[in-house]
Amino acid sequence: QKEVEQDPGPLSVPEGAIVSLNCTYSNSAFQYFMWYRQYSRKGPELLMYTYSSGNKEDGRFTAQVDKSSKYISLFIRDSQPSDSATYLCASYPLRSGGYNKLIFGAGTRLAVHP
Amino acid sequence: DTGVSQDPRHKITKRGQNVTFRCDPISEHNRLYWYRQTLGQGPEFLTYFQNEAQLEKSRLLSDRFSAERPKGSFSTLEIQRTEQGDSAMYLCASSPGQGKETQYFGPGTRLLVL
Known about the structure:
Chain A has strands spanning 4-6, 11-14, 19-25, 30-38, 45-51, 54-58, 61-66, 71-76, 85-93, 103-104, 108-113. By secondary structure, chain A is mostly beta strands. In chain A, strands 2, 4, 5, 9, 10 and 11 form a 6-stranded mixed beta sheet that branches. A 5-stranded antiparallel beta sheet of chain A has the order 1-3-8-7-6, with no helix packed on it. Chain B is mainly beta. In chain B, strands 2, 4, 5, 6, 9, 10 and 11 form a 7-stranded mixed beta sheet that branches. A 4-stranded antiparallel beta sheet of chain B has the order 1-3-8-7, with no helix packed on it. The model of chain B has no long low-confidence stretch (mean pLDDT 93). Chains A and B meet through β5, β9 and β10 of A and β4, β5 and β10 of B.
């Protein structure tokens, strides 16, 4: 079992829809959670960074973490064709004073059509 | 801030040849990571540098792989005697290394081994 599981999609939605992207994780030591967006043939771009359970909002994006069920979500409101990309969730365990190698999910491909 | 840069962006080589990739991190970022991403998968950690010191290497990094970061600035990743299974996107990321661990990724080097 992978430490971070993510449905690969593809997910196809009409422009303006609310998109829900989800990941589950198995390692209870994971404390920090990130969502990256990756356009085709480009490097990942950090979208959201959260710590602890709860919601974090940034413009049209909302990240949600539920540590009790080990479930993380990214919601995109008013989706645009420019949101079409692969969305990667990632996490790392809390380590004192050390570096942190990210553990990624496989990514969900999203297509927003006009 | 010019971001993380990688060179070359694309590399096609024949099996058995050696290849070298370069990563220039964001200036003053003392942490540098290499990841590998294959089609349909999320990035997987390869190795980590704190300044010039290589502090961890993944089991994915066979003895054909070597990485350096002389003087704690740019980094190189060399693959000797390439194999078709080495075909992947090689991503470099850097972080400031203080407090929140936000890793910024470069555009990647896409390697195809024929």
